[in-house]
Amino acid sequence: MKKYLLLGVISATLFASCLKSKDDEPPPPPPGNGSQTSFDWPAIADSSSQSLNQFWSASGNFFRASNTSTDWAQYWPNAHGLDVLVDAYIRTNKSGTVKAQMDAFLTGVRAKNGNTWINHFYDDMEWMALACLRAYDTTKDEAYKNITNLLWNDIKNGWSTELFGGIWWNKDNGSKNAPSNLPAAILAARLYQRFNDPNDLQWATDIYNWVKSNLYESTTGLVYDHIEKNGNKNTTWKFTYNQGTFIGAALELFKITGNPSYMADAIKAADYTLNSGFLTSNGILKDENGGDGGLFKGVFVRYFTRLIIEGSLDSGKKASYLNFMVNNAKTLWTKGTNKNQVLFNSGWDKMPGTTVDFTVQLSGVMLMEAMAEFKRRSMVE
Q1: How far apart are the C-alpha atoms of 223 and 182, rounded to whole Å?
Q2: Alpha helix (H) ranges present in the chain?
Q3: C-alpha to C-alpha distance for 272 and 253, rounded to whole angstroms
Q4: Radius of gyration of the chain (CA)
Q5: What value, to the nearest 5°, has the Cα angle with vertex 165 and ends 170 and 217?
Q6: How far apart are CA 242 and CA 238, in angstroms?
Q7: Handedness of CA 342, 300, 80, 96 (dihedral sign)
Q8: What burial class does residue 60 get, using C-beta atoms within 10 Å of its C-beta: 0-12 exposed, 13-18 middle, 19+ buried?
Q9: How far apart are CA 246 and CA 243, in angstroms?
Q10: Which domains can be identified in the chain, with CATH numbers?
Q11: CA-to-CA distance for 144 and 147, rounded, in angstroms?
Q12: Stretches in the chain below the pLDDT threshold 50
């Protein structure tokens, strides 16, 4: 995530069908009722996924920085672009069209990264490895597995004993942060679950324990952002991204070990996000602007979704979390979406302008894909 401090700031040949702007909208409310009564989440997710046509470079086979830009969206947002293609591949029952898009992506993004998958930023590589591992899981295409292994071997070089452990943010070795460690813990845990290498489980445990000891406020559930090489710790920045990745890492270790302390950690981090008042506004995940910040809510949504589906939650907690997601999705679709183009805003309760960052669009797509999955599982109407 090269510029995560800068919070202010499908081509038609592969997806031939047009963007939907009418048939997936909820029907008009009955007379006297001011609210919409139903939402076709699978159709909305389909339109949301197809909206990425507007960000795709057909000549370069990569996602562009915005719907009006010619520049690529950089490495880490493109990694999440692959992740949402995997979402679409699963939702469409392994569409050959989506698989072709995924394969084209491999060629284009590698070329834009200097004809290599290795990157200066450890967190960027972690996101690409996570996306490729999901792609391998769903397609069984060895190309994605090979990329995952290549990246994981380089990521592990980022660990050092300075600051009592942890992975550096990048290869300048200036700070260690939640973004460079928590996705690595998720990756290591998932690799262990797929391939049963005990070293991967040790990595996941060690990375998670380092974060919990150095970047986690156990009394509240807040995940701090980073610690500088000189030992100065930033305890004031509050990002949905860090909460989401902490939830994801805790959940994966809970699934492996059954240790309830991991589930307790995940719930505390989730509850802080929803209830502290720092990361929501009127029950909606806060506007973290464009640029890198535009993707933060999407990261939270992806791992919060997994907690709802795969976590050991009591019925009341699960219902509360689901209601939160439904409220956010309905708000985004009714208040924060330009349905003529299916473009999302960074503030989910406000209409977007004509130019939307790819990162912002990804967060909206992730939310709608989550709702479609809940619908497939009969968890929402």
Answers
A1: 10
A2: 41-50, 75-91, 96-112, 122-139, 142-155, 178-195, 198-214, 240-257, 260-275, 296-310, 315-335, 358-376
A3: 20
A4: 20
A5: 95
A6: 8
A7: negative
A8: middle
A9: 5
A10: 43-376 (1.50.10.20)
A11: 5
A12: 3-35
- In whole angstroms, give the CA distance from residue 17 to residue 215: 46
Structure token digits, residue 79: 């990694």
Q: Which residues pair with 66 in a beta bridge?
A: 357
Say if CB 7 and CB 286 are below 8 A apart: no
Name the helix (H) or strand (E) containing 280: strand 280-281
Cα separation, 199 vs 188, in Å, equals 9
- Three-state DSSP state, 311: coil
- What are the φ/ψ torsions at residue 66 (nearest 5 degrees)? -155, 175
Cβ pair 193, 180 in contact under 8 A: no
H/E stretch holding 344: strand 343-344
**Region at 32 (left for phi over 0; alpha for psi -120 to 50; beta for the rest):** left
198-207 b/e with 16+ CB inside 10 Å = b?
Answer: eebbebbbbb
CA-to-CA distance for 112 and 135, rounded, in angstroms?
20
Total Cβ atoms within 10 A of residue 261: 12
Q: In this structure, are strands 280-281 and 284-285 parallel, antiparallel, or unpaired?
A: antiparallel
Q: How far apart are CA 364 and CA 345, in angstroms?
A: 8
Hey, how many other C-beta atoms are within 10 angstroms of the C-beta on 107?
Answer: 12
Taking only the tens place, the pLDDT of each residue in 102-122 is: 999 999 999 999 999 999 999
pLDDT score, position 312:
96
How far is the CA of 77 from the CAs of 3, 74, 166, 196, 358, in angstroms?
11, 6, 23, 29, 8
Query: Rounded to the nearest 5 degrees, what angle is found at the Cα of 352, between the Cα atoms of 330 and 68?
Result: 130
Alpha carbons 108 and 117: distance in angstroms, whole number: 11
User: What is the three-class DSSP state of 233?
Assistant: strand
344-352 long-range contacts, CB within 8 A, separation 24+? 344/48, 346/287, 346/288, 346/289, 346/290, 346/293, 346/294, 347/287, 348/284, 348/285, 348/287, 348/297, 349/281, 349/282, 349/284, 350/287
**Rounded to whole angstroms, what are the CA distances from 164 to 168, 208, 358?**
12, 13, 36
